[in-house]
Structure formats: structure tokens, C-alpha cells
Prior knowledge:
Blueprint: H1 15-35, E1 40-43, H2 49-54, E2 58-60, H3 62-71, H4 75-84, H5 93-104, H6 108-113, E3 123-127, H7 133-145, E4 149-152, H8 163-175, H9 177-184, H10 190-212, H11 223-229, H12 231-235, H13 240-259, E5 269-274, H14 282-290, E6 294-299, H15 300-303, H16 315-322, H17 332-345, E7 350-356, H18 369-377, E8 381-386, H19 396-412
Parallel strand pairs: 1-2, 1-3, 3-4, 5-6, 5-7, 7-8
Iron/sulfur cluster binds at residues 63, 92, 94, 130-131, 133-134, 359, 361-362, 388.
Amino acid sequence: MGERDSKAIKKIQATGLMRKLMGAYFQELDEAARTGNRKIAWCTSVGPAELLRSFGFLVYFPENHGAVLGSSRMAQDLIPAANARGYSPDICSYLTSDVGSYLKGETPLKQAFGMAGVPRADVLVYNTNQCRDVKDWLAFYEREWDVPLIGIDTPRGLGDLSRDHLDGLIAQHKALIPTLEDISGRAFDLDRLKEVVASSYRCTMLWKQVLGSATHRPSPLTFFDGTIHMGPAVVLRGLPEAEHYYEVLIQELEQRNADGVAAVDGEKHRFYWEGMPVWGKLRDHALLFSGQQACVVASTYCNSWIFEPLGSDDPFEGMARSYTELFIVRSEDFKERYLADMFASYDIDGIIYHDAKTCPNNSNCRYGMPQRLTRTTDVPYVTINGDLNDLRLYSEEQARTQFEALIEQLHEQP
Ligand code: SF4
């Protein structure tokens, strides 16, 4: 396959600002861990971060660390340490990478941000909307550090969200308050929560605009750019810095669209990525596709951080809806309708399903969905077997052959 050199990846200028903001975020956490000047809450990535911020907690997201361990390719060396502790090689490789990182005392955060290590939690807060692994993951640290583990148990496989579902979830959010008051030493402040949720809502709408810019032909950004630039939407949502960042990024992307600047020069094919990224192969994949003038313009993964219900007048209802109405929580029928709409909105020519061995929750190709969607949308697809973090489960050769097969299919189309 004719790959281009690294110049084929077009640098987004706003990346410098993002690195600065992410650096400041990690350094604040590091200082808090060293001095105890602020309390630290660990939160699952689609968990009640806004509620935690309203109490003044600094919020740390272990899944973000999982992704960093994957993209730095440290994961392979760390996963066996977690396996030796009884955490199976078949469960979430974010979990096993992160637990291995803790057991070996190794993290790329030290080198990247000068941190002493991963910041220790004062409280661990989960939402099982994505999977059970997140709860088991935080339970490891509950045992290690003897700190409280609290959270929200969300039903999964939902079609429509009923009033009963919502009321139960709102009650679960409110039930967290006494523990958070205790640990933070602050009384719950509804006005503060409204401010944080409103900021998070503005952030989410800006992030939606960022991703929506890729409906333009040619697209100004790729899925691989998106996985990097979603950082602030994941770890800084609810803070003004995240809003500022996306305003800057949108300006740049709009300018690209106005000037007809493509993320992939000579964009010929537009692809959709369904499933987790292969973090240790992001750059290779970006080059592989751009070498074929193919742009992966959209994905379920990046779109999962759009939480429109945060605009609700009631912040509890906004959080409960946002963290339950997301794709991963929904029924097969809902997911099929969602994907068909995405293929149409982004004018998709082909789909790549990533069957991530250790994340069945984000792999949607195991129960016939690609075949059903091809019948209704007529968009061709391929499936690659791999993993988010464990590169021992990924075959470069197989993935390359599959990508090539998809491009061939498109060339053969009339
Ligand atoms: S959704 Fe998948 S990747 Fe995310 S924590 Fe759960 S198992 Fe891991």
C-alpha cells in the first residue's frame, strides 16, 4: 500500500494550546496529590463529573490514563503485572494496563508532565453505563487505598428511556451527595452545580460543532485527529478552559473549510470508524488511510462525548439523561438507527468495524449488526480484529488486508 510520509498528517495548529491546557490540568492534580491542597475524585469517563466539580474536587479520569498507556505503547509491558494479580487478559485492557501501571509504578504522565505519579484518589466514583469493568477497576483502588467507592448503576441495552428509569437514576445521583459533602467538607450547592452543568453543556455543543465540521467535503479533520482533540471534552468538561479550547479549534476548522483545506489531500473516500481506536496504532492508521486518499471522517467513539440533554433546566435530569442516553447504553435497534443516520449525515462510503477483543461493550459487530446495516444502507464494511490497548491481539497484516479490501470494493463500484 502506497503510504505517504509523516507530512501526510496535517498538523492542527490548536494542538499546542490543547497540550498547554492538558499540561496545566495534570500539574494541578500533581500538586494536589503532593500537598493535599485540593481533594481528588476519580471518575469514570461518562460519570457524574459535573457533580464532583460542583464540590470543588479535582477530577481525574482513569480511562484517559488507559488511553495514554495505549498510545505510548507501554500497555503491553504493564498488562502482565495485572494478569499476575488475577485480572484476566480477556477483560478491559484499559483496566489491566492501568492496574499494571500502578503495580509497577510506571506511567508516561511522569515524563510528559513531570508528575510524581498517578494522583491518589480521595473518593472513587463510577457509572456502570459503559460496562461493569469500570466498577471493578475502581474497586481495585478501593481495596488498595481504603477510600470510598460510590457510584451509579445504570441499566443497559435501553431502547427508550422511561420516566421510571430517569427517576431512579436521578435518585442515584442525589444519593452520592452526603458522601461527597463529607469528603469535600463542603455543603451541596445547587447554583454551583447549575453553573458547572451549563459550562459542560456549552463544551459539549462546541465539541459537536467540531465533529460536525467533518460533514464538509473535503473534511477538515479525521477520526484520528478527533481521538486526540476530544481530550478537553473528556477531562475538562465543566471548566471554562474546555469551552475556550473548542472555540479556538472551531475557528481553525472553519477556516480550513472556507479555504478548501482537506485533512487528507485529494480526499476520495469517506469512512466511518465503529468501535474503539487502536491507541498504539493511531499514527500508523492515519498514514495508512491518507496514503489511499481515504479520510475516516466520523466515529461512534468521538461522538459519544456529545451530551445534549445537559441543556435541561434541571441539572440532575440533564446528567441522568446524558449519561444514559449515550450510544453504548442503548438497544441494538437504537444503535442501528443511529449508525444509519450517521452514515447518511457524513456521506460515508465504507465502514470499519473494530472488534476490540477486550471491550465487547464498544464492539458492535458480534451480533449481526454490520450485515443488517449493509442490507438497509448499502454501505460496504470490513471488520478488523484488534484491541484498544493490547497490541498482542492486533495483526498489522490482517488490518492492512482488510483496509485494502474495502478500498478495492469501492474502486469496483460503478
Ligand atoms: S467500555 Fe470497554 S474500554 Fe471502556 S472501560 Fe469498559 S471495557 Fe474498558
